[in-house]
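Deliverable D2.4 — example input (structure tokens):
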């Protein structure tokens, strides 16, 4: 193990601007155990990503609550939600008969429809807005200056020292520039948002699709009520191993029912040697391709990805592509558990349903964020959008990658790029550390060690649009 003399660089730093000093020192730093340990949290986050980390965290809470010490979190949540429902019942809306939540309560729709819809909508809207705060500025760089001037003119803005406001905006600007370094399609001529009209259209379409999602959750709940699902006593948590198994089944069902219509919509039967073209009669394959593509085309109007536009699609696509595959799993396991007489243990529990719906909504947005970060790597679906209408290079039609692997439509590029990106981040951290120790500033190239790959050669416009 090479030893590093921390002061070695400092002794001869006077006048030393040789970039190779930092390169050599960074090589040594990267070999040290201390550096490897320091990079572990970042590696852990990048490997599991935010949704899986939250799921693992919830699973460990469930194990603790079931086997170590009862935490009562779920019970508190259900009691609090009932409190909100009862408070709503006392409001003027109920008294005027505008909305009668007593009836809703009798069908358990508060817990089976209202709460999961609100959770899923929030899981969509919050990350979408977080992505948007950078995308808006990328789209119109003058927005930041505009908002700074507006804030300075407000009553509160006039009382805050000007230098403070400028510092806050400078901090945001540098955060934005950092964020832009991780934008996957940064080299493109186009941005995710083309003009204000398109932006407003995305907002309108997504708002409608959130409402549609809510009614599909209602349809799921009404279907679940036809089974032996226990709606009276929700307080006991599911057994620790059940949500894990159910999530594997639900993710697989989601991948299966998302992959095929999506694959067909992108793959032209006449030039394709794909399996669906060989299995289905020619006319049916062509009909399905045209039908799915006409619906799916809207989703690919945003050339570079943007989190908000994950559900930017026609109502038909929202139901067939996005909602049906995600909602089928919870219903299927409940029906199966019923038929096997195992509903008590293996039935769909409300807490598992809430987590699943929230995870599915958040995953949709994160897959479209268009930015690599320590918490999220949307490279797979981003490449799908980049190559969407390329006749032979279109790839990555599934969510898990299982059916893509089966049909040979999985590109190895995102995995290779993720590996390279992580190695570049490690190198960048080592270079900064080397510069701090040696006192030799990093060159421009050394400061931009992390680079997003350019796939612009395979970009192709949709010829049918
Ligand atoms: Zn997409
Ligand atoms: Zn697509």
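Example output (designed residues):
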């Amino acid at each position: 193990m090479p030893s590093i003399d921390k002061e070695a660089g400092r002794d001869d730093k006077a006048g030393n601007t040789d970039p190779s000093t930092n390169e050599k020192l960074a090589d040594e730093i990267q070999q040290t155990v201390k550096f490897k340990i320091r990079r572990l949290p970042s590696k852990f986050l990048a490997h599991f990503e935010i949704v899986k980390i939250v799921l693992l965290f919830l699973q460990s809470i469930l194990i603790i609550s079931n086997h170590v010490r009862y935490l009562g979190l779920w019970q508190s949540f259900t009691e609090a939600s009932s409190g909100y429902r009862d408070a709503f019942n006392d409001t003027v809306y109920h008294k005027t008969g505008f909305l009668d939540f007593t009836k809703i309560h009798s069908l358990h729709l508060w817990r089976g429809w209202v709460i999961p819809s609100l959770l899923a909508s929030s899981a969509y809207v919050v990350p979408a807005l977080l992505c948007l705060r950078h995308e808006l500025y990328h789209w119109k760089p003058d927005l930041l200056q505009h908002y700074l001037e507006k804030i300075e003119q407000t009553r509160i803005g006039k009382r805050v020292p000007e230098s403070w406001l400028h510092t806050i905006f400078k901090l945001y600007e540098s955060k934005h520039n950092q964020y832009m370094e991780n934008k996957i399609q940064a080299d493109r001529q186009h941005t995710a948002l083309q003009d204000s009209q398109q932006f407003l259209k995305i907002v309108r379409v997504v708002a409608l699709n959130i409402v549609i999602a809510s009614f599909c959750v209602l349809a799921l709940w009404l279907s679940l009520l036809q089974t032996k699902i226990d709606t009276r006593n929700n307080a006991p948590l599911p057994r620790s191993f059940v949500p894990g198994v159910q999530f594997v089944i639900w993710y697989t069902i989601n991948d299966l029912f998302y992959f095929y219509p999506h694959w067909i919509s992108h793959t032209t039967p006449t030039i394709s040697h794909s399996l669906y073209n060989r299995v289905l009669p020619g006319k049916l394959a062509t009909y399905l391709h045209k039908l799915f593509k006409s619906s799916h085309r809207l989703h690919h109007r945003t050339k570079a990805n943007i989190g908000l536009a994950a559900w930017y699609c026609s109502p038909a696509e929202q139901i067939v592509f996005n909602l049906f595959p995600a909602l089928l799993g919870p219903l299927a396991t409940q029906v199966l558990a019923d038929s096997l007489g195992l509903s008590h243990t293996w039935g769909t529990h409300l807490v598992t349903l809430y987590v699943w719906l929230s995870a599915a909504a958040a995953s949709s947005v994160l897959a479209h964020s268009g930015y690599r970060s320590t918490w999220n790597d949307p490279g797979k679906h981003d490449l799908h959008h980049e190559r969407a209408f390329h006749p032979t290079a279109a790839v990555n039609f599934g969510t898990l990658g299982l059916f893509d692997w089966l049909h040979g439509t999985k590109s190895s590029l995102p995995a290779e790029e993720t590996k390279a990106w992580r190695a570049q981040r490690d190198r960048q951290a080592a270079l900064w550390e080397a510069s701090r120790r040696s006192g030799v500033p990093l060159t421009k190239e050394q400061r931009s060690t992390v680079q997003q790959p350019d796939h612009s050669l395979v970009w192709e416009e949709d010829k049918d649009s």
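The chain has a mean pLDDT of 85.
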